[in-house]
Design brief:
three-stranded antiparallel β-sheet
């Protein structure tokens, strides 16, 4: 009885301390990865692969015409691994590592299949947020335009040429006029 309690307490402590693999926050990128990786494994055009549904968080179901029939594949994406398993073809199971670049929000997979001649890396990116698009537009402008904009802002703060600038003392109030 004592051994059972010790085993149960160890199992419970291991279950409580186990950290789940971080899930991807980008469903559109995960679907793209699933199609591209399945296309590479089956040596098919990714456009021939159909996204069916999301089974659970980061687990997706795809279908494709393969081996003279419609076949379904489950693709799980978590952390830095992509796991592919065929529903009808259980022997077709792959675990493929991938890298995720947080700055560009793109995943890169280095995978090639012996049956397929395509060997270039698979790159899938998530849709950019509105803030990302604004930042890109800002930095895509030429430097002289950025400097011109800064100059205009600085000139707007200055008083017109005919008026003397009011001096301010250290407390934010205008300085008293000089005594005559």
């Amino acid at each position: 009885m004592r051994r059972i309690l010790i085993a149960l307490s160890l199992a419970l402590s291991m279950a409580l301390t186990a950290v789940p693999a971080p899930a991807s926050d980008y469903m559109d990128m995960d679907i793209c990865l699933g199609k591209q990786v399945l296309g590479r494994i089956l040596c098919k055009d990714p456009q021939e692969i159909n996204y069916v549904s999301q089974v659970r968080d980061n687990i997706y179901l795809f279908s494709v015409f393969y081996a003279k029939q419609v076949a379904r594949f489950v693709v799980g994406i978590s952390g830095d691994k992509i796991r592919v398993q065929g529903r009808e073809f259980l022997k077709l199971t792959r675990t493929i590592p991938y890298d995720f670049d947080t700055t560009s929000k793109c995943a890169v997979v280095e995978y090639s299949s012996s049956e397929c001649t395509r060997t270039e890396p698979i790159v899938c990116c998530t849709e950019k947020t509105e803030e990302d698009v604004k930042e890109e537009k800002f930095w895509d402008r030429p430097i002289p335009d950025l400097l011109e904009e800064d100059l205009k802002k600085a000139l707007e703060v200055l008083p017109p040429e005919g008026q003397p600038a009011q001096e301010q003392n250290g407390q934010g109030a205008p300085a008293a006029p000089p005594a005559q």
